[in-house]
Amino acid sequence: MNKVIIDENYSSERLDAFLTKILEGKTRSYCQKMIEEERVLVNSKIVTKSSLKLKEGDVVEYDLLIDKPLEIVKKDIKLDVLYEDEDLLVINKPRGMVVHPSNGHYDGDTLVNALLYSVKDLSSINGVVRPGIVHRIDKDTSGLLVVAKNNEAHLFLSEQLKDHSMYREYMAITEGVISNTDLKIIAPIGKDPNNRLKRCVDVFNGKDAVTYVHVIERFKSHTLVSCKLETGRTHQIRVHMKHIGFPLVGDPVYGRRHQTIPCEGQMLHAYKITFKHPRTKEMMTFTCEPDAEFKRVLDIIREEK
Fold first, then answer.
1. Most buried residue, 102, 187, 249, 257, by most Cβ within 10 Å?
2. How far apart are CA 5 and CA 154, in angstroms?
3. Active-site option among 138, 140, 192, 291
4. Are residues 152 and 249 both part of a single domain?
5. Which residue numbers in the chain have pLDDT < 70?
6. Could you read off the pLDDT of 15-44 as tens digits, one per residue?
7. 168 and 191 belong to one structural domain
8. Containing H/E element for 174?
9. Who's near 39: CB < 8 A, 6+ residues apart?
10. Are residues 201 and 237 in the same domain?
11. Domain that holds residue 81
12. How far is it, in rounded angstroms, from Cα 148 to Cα 166?
C-alpha cells in the first residue's frame, strides 16, 4: 500500500479531500469509492467514513481502485434452475461458486458468467459485473437465489429485500449444543476494523441485524438449526452464530481454529425463499435440499449419538 504521514498542512482536512489533493487526476468521488471499498487505512485501521478529520502525525495508507473489466465473458456452466419465466429465475447455487466477478474472482467461473451464457436477458441495474443479481450468498454457502431478467422485476424484488417481506431461511450445522429451542439474535453488524474481509458485531457503528434461530436436532457436540433472516447483512448468520458462541462447522473465517470435522467450507445452506412475483403479485415459495457435502457432514455428526 502507498503510505503518507499527515503534516500540519493537512491537519483537520477531510480524508476524501486529502486524497483528492494528493492523487493527481483522481476525482473526489473516486477517492470516496476507495474509502467505501476499504482501500484506505488510517493508523493501520480501515476507515469507512469519507468525512474523517485527519490529525498531524496520522499515517494514511491506500490502494488505488482496480479497474473492473468492461465485459464479463459468457461461460457454459450448467445451472440448477428450479423455476424460470419471463421475469425471473430461481437458482440453486452450488457450494464453491462465487455469485459475481470481483477482486480475486475474474476467472470466469461465477454465477454471472453462467447466467450470461444461458439467459438471453438480465436486468442491468447493477451494471455489467452483476447483471440480474438481486441478492447474494457466500461462495461456500449453497442454496437459493432469485435472479431478475428485467429492471422492473429487479426493482420490485429489491424492494421486498428492503422492507424484509422476502422470506429467506437457511439450514446450518453449529459447533456445540444449543439448549434453547428458539433464539432471536439482535446484534448490529459492521466492518471489522482490523480485517477488510470480515464483519463483526459492532453495537456503536454497526447496522441493525436480526436472526431467528430454531433448533431442528441436537447431537452430542453439534446442533442442526434453521435460521431466518429479518435483515440481510454480509455474513450475518456466520457472525451472529459466532457471537453467541456456536460458530458454524467448517467456517474458515468465523469458525473454530481447529475444525472438528474436515469439510468444504461452512455448513450453511439457503433452503427456502418466499417472495411476491413482480408481475402476477402472487406469493411464491421454493425449497431445496442441502448438497451432498452438507449431508455427508450431518451423517458424521449423527454417529456421535
1. 249
2. 45
3. 138
4. no
5. 67-71, 103-107, 305
6. 999 999 999 888 898 899 899 888 999 999
7. yes
8. strand 167-175
9. 62, 63, 64, 65
10. yes
11. 68-163
12. 14
